[in-house]
## 1
Amino acid sequence: MKKTVLTAVAALSLAGAAAPVLAQPVTPGGWDLARRESWLQDRIDRGRADGSLARMEARRAERQLASVRRQERHLRRMDGGVLRPSDVTTLQARLDNVADHIRWLRHNDVRRPWA
């Protein structure tokens, strides 16, 4: 009896701790916000490394990405650590804009006169 009660208490404790993580919406294909942010940072780093992004272009893209991350932290603080579906939609749209901007910067075929 005592063992059953302890097991139940432990299971409820774990479920309560995992609930905020499990409540975070995941976009189709398993791309949650953190994964997209990490992927975009990797694109910026690759662009800087291969020369398709100038230093200033990379900084601008990183500032845009940092702004999205700040907004995400703010929204989480406002709602007790959980993002509402509308918050996720807003953040995903902003990440779409960052991705589009990085793509344009890396493939705009404008030759830099100083390069």
Note: The chain has four helices and no strands.
## 2
Amino acid sequence: MFNNDKEFIGKTIQTMRKRANIKQSELAEKIGISEKHLSKIETGKNLPSLDNFFKMAEILKFNLEDFGINSIPHQNEYKQRLLKIAYSASDNEAKSYCEIIETLDKIMKGKK
């Protein structure tokens, strides 16, 4: 199910921006819109264009599941949870997660 409420979408974008530790002015500049327009998106007054939404997704590393869209139907619940964590992770976090999972994989398979 897709949550198309402007306020929900704006708040989710704002949360992802803050999680990425990016100022509103920086994100606006990176995607080529005014800070005022981004503010209106984050407060639910405007929706981003599809092009700007994809730019935000790339910069902030969010995915459609953060907006209530299940992009991988019939996927195991645990795999979905892992993917959500992976897609929302920073580069450093993703590296650490990979190392941990690879180590656990070796342990589970009895390899050294």
Note: The chain has six helices and no strands.
## 3
Amino acid sequence: MSLINQVLKDLDRQGSPSGLPGGVHAIPDTAPSRASPAWPWAALALAAGGGLLWFILTSGQAESTDPFARSLHMAEHLSLSTPAAMTPEATPPTELQAEPGTPQSDPAATETPLPAPARAEAGHDPAPSAHPAAKLDRELAQPAVPPPVVKAQRPLTPAEQAEETYHHALSLIQRGRAREAANVLATALRLSPTHLGARQAAVALALEMNDRGRAETLIDEGLGFHRGEPWFYKSLGQLQAERGDYAHAADTLLAGLPLAGGDPVFLGLAGGALARAQRHGEAARLYTEALGKSPGNGPWWIGLGLSLEQLGRREEAAAAFRQARQTRLSAELSGFVNQKLAELAGP
């Protein structure tokens, strides 16, 4: 009722608008009843205040010109706008004063009784959630829970997809599914042709399946992407030598030799390719360098002896063959060394 009273007081100070009943005055402010707290009725008071303002603004357009009828209509509106939980004692009725000369009517016939206050059953408090204002107050009192943060998943790049595909192929190899793994590795190389591990694994599988043409193609393609990787030069040179293309094998191995870092195996392979390509001077030099790092390699001593013999350095060749005989050789190689020593010892 405080909001309604405030509106009426403001209207009294400013003068009644056109059509406002002269007998309607502000209700004196009274303390709210202990039986019913005032704040839960804030929402209803706003609604009641809105209804009163609507009545004040539209009362001038009412068809009836009888002051008493307008006062009666106002009294009925106020009684209907009063909250149901307020008692008649807590809210004094609106005082109605009839204009002079107007006969007074029976209050019992014109006053609309207020609804009986709602009473809670014994031992049961009214549920606070039944009132929308109380429910809103509880919701505002509860701390807001932030929504869970959902991170958008970034799509994988082709290189990342190739890496995952490569690891899948390795798992297939471990389970003995070589052909399926070869197809998966081919997919990885289509996604990322520069993937070193996938290419090396694909070469190894091709060699294991005796597909040397496929292996050589994979290595040759890899050289275009990995010019600084000696593994491709060594692997390609070996395959070229195995198929009898010693000239290309020697060139390939010599091209990768600066990247090998003095690897004796790389040196020995290059020396063998050069010897078979009839480039014995270069072969003898590389054999000597390889044996300086790994002197127990019998086949390299044999290779050095053969190249020195072709160069006409027979005594040095015989010394190389004698060194080879001090290593562990197969029966076939041992027989070959003894034969060469016998030839070099003759006239």
Note: Residues 113 and 130 are 25 Å apart (CA to CA).
